[in-house]
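Async update (no meeting this week)

Hi team, since we skipped the sync, here's where things stand on the single-chain job. The sequence we agreed to prioritize is pasted below, unchanged from the tracker. I ran it this morning and attached the output directly underneath so nobody has to dig for it. Comments welcome in thread, and please keep replies under the output.
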Amino acid sequence: MQRCYFSEFKSSTLLHRARIATLFFISFVFSYVLFSSALDSCQIRFPEYLVSSSLSFDSLSVRAETTLETVLKEASMNDNTVILTTLNEAWANPDNSILDLFLASFRFGNQTSKLLNHLVIIALDQNAFASCKRVHTHCFALTTDGVDFSHEAYFMTPNYLKMMWQRIDFLRSVLEMGYNFLFTDADVMWFRDPFPHFYPDADFQIACDHYSGNSTDVETNIPNGGFSFVRSNVRSIEFYKYWYSSRVIYPDLHDQDVLNNIKYDSILTDINLKLRFLDTTYFGGFCEPSKDLNKVCTMHANCCVGLENKVHDLRIMLQDWNNFMALPNGMESQTWRDPKNCSLALRRHLDLSEDGMKVETIT
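Output:
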């Protein structure tokens, strides 16, 4: 009799505990649902540093890859194409912002504002990431262990070279994830939709500092890495791997000059890469301006040294575009003004006189 009592007591206790556990679980789920609803209705957001993860490029974590995949997926077009640019703190500085001018060009351009939905800004430091989040939807933090990319990286300095090569390796990873990309420097102004002017059969197509008039002319065209459209396939991925590995052969050159060397290499033929160069009529810059404002898609602040000089002359460029857009239909008198600060800075950088001749330096 006593044994039966204890058996019934034990069963009752276990049942009681099970009921308590069930009630606790239901209460927890109900509270969680209410809390989540409150967050959504009130649009409460946790601080970015609690919910975002930066990518240490030397070792990609699964979580970081997932975050990048999410950003790319949200920004991609129907054919898995994204527009990419890179940004550091210096270029995002509100007092002297390349970023502001870059985004303004999309808004001032002819039916280009819709393309902002497909733009992903790759921030190279945490301050640039914070600046991006304030003004744009699709941002991703890409950091490199032991390297500070927040300051202006002067042309051909060690930090500049590291930044350029990190960009090449990152773009390779985007291709391997199955995304086509249009890469654009942030000092490229967007005035028209460029996609109708890309070659449909090209794997890799790139803007030029100088365009010879022939899109397949490897000999004379001088490519500029600040604007390129690349389709994701085996050929383009192998090309980016080869391009990145070539930095070892040319240790003192940046990615653009290395490309200018390897464009002759037989491996491009071996992998059957379809390479095309873009006409400066549509994709111009300070080096070789587009001469027809009725056709121009983008203009790049190339052939220019110094952030402040770029900002000064890009503002003039945007003014010229706005003046052109304000003209009555049929009037085509508006042209680009010559770069001012950029031209002077470039001449000083190259030790050129006003007539373009090399200046003899007396020490």
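Quick observations from my side:
The domain at 52-283 is CATH 3.90.550 (Spore Coat Polysaccharide Biosynthesis Protein SpsA; Chain A).
The CA atoms of residues 352 and 358 lie 5 Å apart.
Reply here if anything looks off.
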